[in-house]
Write a structure and sequence with these properties.
Rossmann fold, 8-stranded mixed beta sheet, 10 helices
Length: 271
């Protein structure tokens, strides 16, 4: 099923790897079904922009509690198909909706990190009947999206993203300044080129149109990182977020605390 070129992207663990055909695409999922995975709606994990299912590797075995857990490689990432176009937010919504149809899953609990949270919010807005509940991890709620878009167009547009302060806030407290990763990023010549697709998607009018709907009654959890430089401050009247230690990469900075928060929230959802 998987070519030899893809196998390095698919390490073994407490999951199995699946390719699902949806909208003429092959989308890769890492799937865990503890106890058969029949104890509630499946949990679908959506990674941040440019990340893959691997960013959820620490949480997959911690979240089950009888539910199926599905960690997705979105279009163009990991072991999923790459296409010349189809990366705007409405395309992502269509991909996710088609994925649920292909899996014969009536509805899911969506957990989205960063840009994955925006994708999850857009799916809940367009197809609320398919979303049992929504967890936004280091992701802006819809009223804050304009600020998130401005930040992507500004501070992340150039080399300022590579300052030591931003690197530490992004990666958490365990990244020493002498790390080869930090040194490589400081010397990296092309941040503007690398961030261009994300900026284009964030600034495209279709992004806001995909989120512009009437009220939706979807139970929602907001989780923020204490040292996240990427999100605007919560507005007055916005839901109070759960704040966890770490930088923007919460699924890797604080997986145990994040898993405990998500598990408690899942258990609190009405049957």
């Amino acid at each position: 099923m998987f070519s030899a070129l893809l196998r390095p992207l698919l390490p073994e663990g407490e999951w199995e790897h699946r390719l699902v055909h949806a909208r003429s695409l092959r989308l890769h999922l890492a799937v865990s079904r503890p106890g058969g995975g029949a104890a509630g709606d499946p949990v679908l994990l959506l990674p941040d922009a440019g990340r893959t299912w691997w960013s959820w590797r620490h949480l997959i075995p911690l979240l089950g509690a009888g539910r199926a857990v599905l960690a997705l490689d979105p279009r163009g990432t990991g072991a999923s198909d790459r296409t010349p176009s189809g990366y705007r937010l409405p395309d992502t919504v269509d991909d996710l909706h088609a994925l649920l149809d292909a899996l014969a899953v009536p509805r899911v609990v969506l957990v989205g990190h960063g840009w994955g949270g925006i994708s999850a919010t857009a799916l809940a807005a367009a197809h609320p009947e398919r979303v049992r509940a929504l967890a936004l991890v280091a992701a802006p709620a819809p009223p804050a999206l304009q600020g998130y878009r401005r930040l992507l167009a500004g501070a992340l547009a150039g080399t300022r993203v590579l300052t030591p302060q931003r690197l530490h806030a992004w990666a958490g407290a365990d990244l020493p300044a002498s790390s080869p990763c930090v040194q490589a990023l400081r010397e990296w010549p092309g941040p503007q080129r690398a961030l261009a697709p994300l900026r284009s998607a964030a600034l495209h009018p279709a992004t806001l149109r995909a989120l512009r709907t009437g009220p939706r009654a979807v139970p929602t959890l907001h989780v923020r990182a204490a040292a996240d430089p990427l999100l605007p401050r919560p507005r007055l009247g916005a839901p109070a977020p759960v704040v966890l230690p770490g930088g923007h990469q919460l699924p890797e900075d604080s997986p145990t605390a994040l898993a405990a928060t998500l598990t408690g929230w899942l258990q609190s959802l009405p049957a």
